[in-house]
Amino acid sequence: MNYRGRIxxxxxxxxxxxxxxxxxxxTDGRVHFIxxxxxxxxxxxxYWIGHLYDKARYYAEKDPxxxxxxxxxxxxxxxxxxxxxxxxxxxxxxLIIDCDNFKSINDMYGHQKGDFVLASIGRTLSxxxxxxxxxxxxxxxxxxxxxxxxxxxxxxxxxxxxTDGLKALSDELGIxxxxxxxxxxxxxxxxDLTELIKIADTNMYIGKxxxxx
Length: 213
Hints:
This protein is an alpha+beta fold. The chain has helices spanning 4-28, 33-61, 71-87, 102-109, 111-128, 152-173, 193-212, and strands at 91-99, 134-139, 142-149, 179-186.
């Protein structure tokens, strides 16, 4: 959760109080002691209002369990992301990552442990991706990664890095965590987010079936 709302609200309330203080100082010819106390009061009022704004914005954009972006944030900002991509004549990769055995983890270890596994997957994905990449919890045990694609070979590198990192997570947690990854490329496969997700999802299930074969 950032402090943007709190900084803005505190600055605005203190500025407004300063304007009133200057006005009364000019009209009365002096500054009352209560004016100085007003700075303390308005600081806390501004901080409280800003905190409510920051909290509301956080829950509108972030998944509280994993601290990753949520589906709403992705759908609302995808247009901005693709606009920048088009201006630079670049490509985007869209990855869907699914925890294959999440139900069995819940059944065997309990929902609290299942939540811990999801949060751990989220931290692992964030640690394995670039700062410019966007990592989100798409829903349930599915995660989404969007990033700039420099060349086709780099997508395989991303796949392998995430696969290896999530395999290492199993050893770290002492719980087998199996994942499948599917991908799609913007604009090669589609320019529509829903279609890209569908293609990545299809590729992910093809990978799942190949592992079972």
